[in-house]
Specification:
126 residues; mainly beta; 4-stranded antiparallel sheet; 11 strands
Length: 126
């Protein structure tokens, strides 16, 4: 069983930065695909960024390209999402997720992920 715990959310002015963290427990962290999704009130959950341990470049939604960077530290069992130049439209609950044996395009499909964190709120406002 994999458990995921997110942290790092909070309130920031437009143009500000936040770094989200997702720490995993469980024996297969090093062989997984991991991703960040977000969900704003009244909207569907949407893909933000993801990566596979087995190779390939990280994948980003168009909304975050050039502003968001996904990374992982396997020794710490932690995945990060560095978010810069935040906009009010980035305000949402952010979730990390772990999946197995995903192909690169499948990183964007929330239904492919087996485990989810509890979420961390990101608020962007003046």
């Amino acid at each position: 069983q994999v458990q995921l715990v997110e942290s790092g959310g909070g309130w920031v002015h437009p143009g500000g930065s936040l770094r989200l963290s997702c720490t995993a427990s469980g024996p297969t962290f090093g062989t997984t695909a991991m991703a960040w999704f977000r969900q704003a009130p009244g909207k569907e959950r949407e893909f933000v960024a993801g990566s596979r341990m087995t190779g390939g470049s990280p994948r980003y939604a168009d909304t975050g390209k050039g502003r968001f960077t996904i990374s992982r530290d396997n020794a710490k069992r932690t995945m990060y999402l560095q978010m810069n130049s935040l906009k009010p439209e980035d305000m949402a609950e952010y979730y990390c997720a772990v999946g197995y044996n995903l192909r690169q395009p499948e990183l964007e499909e929330s239904g492919r992920f087996a485990y989810w964190g509890q979420g961390t709120q990101v608020t962007v406002s003046s």
